[in-house]
Specification:
By secondary structure, this protein is mainly alpha-helical. It has 3 domains: 201 residues, no CATH class; 112 residues, no CATH class; 173 residues, no CATH class. The protein contains 20 helices and 6 strands. Helix 14 packs antiparallel against helix 15 and helix 16 packs across helix 19.
Length: 508
């Protein structure tokens, strides 16, 4: 009888292990399906392809979009799918050994007292254990600042991981509605994959699959490469360079294509967060300089615009912790597309025009410091700077007026000295004073490029400083975290270049 019991025991153990192994293999195969990336999921108030949401999750949890490669996985979708459906042993191993969250603030590191390989990081397993400790510290913290923001961020990450592991995060389309995957059989591949076609048939006007094409084409990375090639081609050729012009127009075409795709995906103007304004300003600047350079027959405009466009493309490509590329629903005040499209677009285009003058002004003051500009050449460059400032001032004046009309429509007052409003006015006054001084000649020809170079710092503060440093006011929907070091670095570099050039110029 004992032998019979042992036989049944081992048979049952082998059967369970076999089923467990078979299920694990089925889940792995299922998560590797390329068609899974296309399946619609309802997240953040809108429908998006699973790959897009999985990338957002990966970026939020690990501050990079390619963390799945560290786990030898093929895509963000595969990582998200396995984290949602894999057996507990596998996910527990990941949480303990492979999934780590960075700790940026010194007080957070002291609170949690945990590091990984000498780096300031905490495993997601430990984060789950210490979630209550983080929550208590957050409740005690009264001061709004980076420490409190990091505690809030850690809790959000812990909650997200918890909902994913509990199968409460993945919303799939089934029988005409979006349902939690815990309510369905996740391994019914045909049913889940077929939901893509069913959803498309029911929603023919939905551009949700365009988002997958948008993120896979990676048009901004190609534009970055082409911009660099155009700059080098134009900078090192003294004759009319058709290759440089062709590369510039191709870059502009790629950026307009990417922006158009983003408009179709989000169904709004692409200027509602810091990522989009940086993206749009680079494209806007390149569009303006191409137009001006063509009619003025002067490629120096084009070269200045390409330099600025290159810097914006670098930001949206590499400043991932500062700029979020996620497409999220708008807050109510921004849902009037007419005012959003006119006011914000006009202001960003004015910044683009001022940005066109910034690299050019710095080039002029450096050449002045080196003593390599004649009076005629200086007058010629000042004319280019003057043209840029006129465009920017007209556009910013229109943007401020349109903003006042929108404020009266949305908040019941034309002007309220909100930080964003105040700094927009400061920028406008700075450039108007410079233009007036240039036209009345109380600003000398040598002083003019110095003032233009430093004036752009007011644009940087109105654009980034109000969001990243002041972070207050009615324009709170546009605020982002981080970026203070970036802003201070730009200020310091400009001050150093300006003072050095002024000192060298005085010596001559």
């Amino acid at each position: 009888m004992n032998k019979l019991n042992h036989f049944f025991y081992w048979s049952l153990t082998i059967f369970i292990s076999f089923n467990f192994s078979l299920r694990a293999n089925n889940i792995t195969s299922f998560c590797q399906l390329e068609d899974l990336q296309k399946t619609p999921t309802l997240q953040d108030g809108r429908v998006k392809p699973l790959e897009s949401y999985a990338r957002d999750v990966e970026k939020f949890l690990f501050e990079k979009k390619s963390y799945h490669l560290k786990l030898d996985l093929h895509s963000s979708t595969e990582f998200y799918c396995l984290l949602s459906l894999a057996p507990q042993e596998k996910t527990l191993s990941w949480l303990k050994k492979d999934l780590w969250v960075n700790l940026h603030h010194e007080k957070t590191r002291d609170l949690l007292k945990n590091t990984h390989d000498g780096k300031n990081a905490l495993s997601y397993f430990q984060l789950q254990i210490q979630a209550d400790q983080i929550r208590s510290a957050l409740m005690r913290e009264r001061e709004e600042g980076s420490y409190k923001k990091e505690l809030q961020n850690l809790l959000s990450k812990a909650n997200l991981i918890q909902t994913i592991l509990a199968k409460e995060n993945w919303m799939v389309f089934h029988e005409g509605d979006f349902k939690n995957i815990s309510e369905l059989d996740p391994l019914n591949q045909e049913d889940l994959i077929a939901s893509t076609q069913i959803y498309q048939d029911k929603n023919p006007d939905d551009f949700y699959l365009l988002e997958l094409t948008y993120i896979k084409l990676n048009l901004y990375s190609w534009a970055l490469l082409l911009t660099l090639m155009a700059i080098l081609t134009l900078a090192f050729s003294r004759r009319e360079n058709y290759l440089g012009w062709s590369l510039s127009i191709l870059t502009l075409t790629l950026q307009i294509t990417a922006t158009t795709m983003r408009i179709l995906i989000s169904n709004r103007a692409p200027i509602t967060n810091m990522y989009e304004t940086v993206m749009f300003s680079g494209m806007g600047c390149l569009l303006l300089v191409t137009f001006i350079a063509f009619f003025k027959k002067d490629r120096r405009f084009l070269l200045a615009g390409l330099v600025y466009n290159f810097s914006t493309l670098l930001m949206i490509r590499f400043a991932n912790n500062m700029l979020s590329s996620s497409i999220k629903p708008l807050v109510p005040v921004l849902r009037d597309n007419f005012w959003l499209s006119t006011h914000v677009t006009t202001v960003i285009l004015s910044y683009s025009a001022f940005a066109m003058s910034w690299p050019l002004a710095n080039w002029v003051i450096i050449r002045l410091a080196q003593g390599k500009l004649t009076k005629d050449q200086l007058a010629d460059y000042n004319g280019l700077l003057y043209t840029s400032l006129k465009w920017g001032t007209v556009l910013l004046s229109a943007g401020v007026i349109l903003g006042g009309v929108w404020a009266d429509y949305s908040w019941g007052r034309f002007w309220g000295w909100d930080p964003k409003e105040t700094w927009s006015l400061i920028v406008l006054l700075c450039y108007m004073v410079i233009l007036h001084g240039k036209s009345t000649q109380w600003i000398t020809k040598r002083a003019f490029p110095f003032l233009v170079a430093f004036a752009f710092l007011s644009v940087i503060f109105a654009w980034f400083g109000v969001n990243y440093i002041l972070a207050s006011g009615l324009h709170s929907y546009g605020f982002s975290e981080g970026g203070a070091i970036f802003i201070l670095s730009i200020f310091m570099v400009q001050i150093i270049i300006g003072l050095w050039c002024y000192w060298q110029t005085k010596k001559r």
